[in-house]
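Reopening this one. Same input as before:
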Amino acid sequence: MRISVYCASSSKINQKYFDATRQLASELANRGDIIVYGGGSHGLMGCLADTALMNGGMVVGILPRFMNKVEWGHKNLTELKLVKDMHERKKLLIKDVDAVVALPGGCGTLEELMEVITLKRLGKFTKPIIILNTDGFYDYLKLLLAKMIDEHFMRPEHAGIWTFVETPQEVIPAIEKAPTWDSDAIKFAAL
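Same output, byte for byte:
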């Protein structure tokens, strides 16, 4: 499979997030999956790429040129695609992938995740979206999404857009069990 992974660039985060990232990267590499990610060399992004590469995996980075100018780009990837801006990056992060996995991250990770959720709601993206909720990191997001449904900002059917999992070992089974999503989802996107 070709799996897009959204994750943090911060190196100052708790070790538990690095541990979960290493577990996931090892599993994906050992399965022969191709990882597509933001192209960075620091934080969980660097950990994801380094671990996958050490395990013989293929890693494709998508990095805006302005970030590469300040040497944020990973130097040893299978492929590093330099793009014009963040919008192009987000498009390529989901192009021809079989799933999106969101690891803990900051505002960039959250923004990418919310955009792909929106695209799926509109039927413009139909693949599984898995949110790795390491040690409850995304508990408040889970509550917020449920509140959006409860208060009729989204339909109950929209809960099928994403799947929360608690451990890296649950990611692949969650991808395999994700409900099919129709490209005609725009027909029930509005309330």
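So the earlier flakiness isn't reproducible anymore. For the record, The chain has one domain: 2-188.
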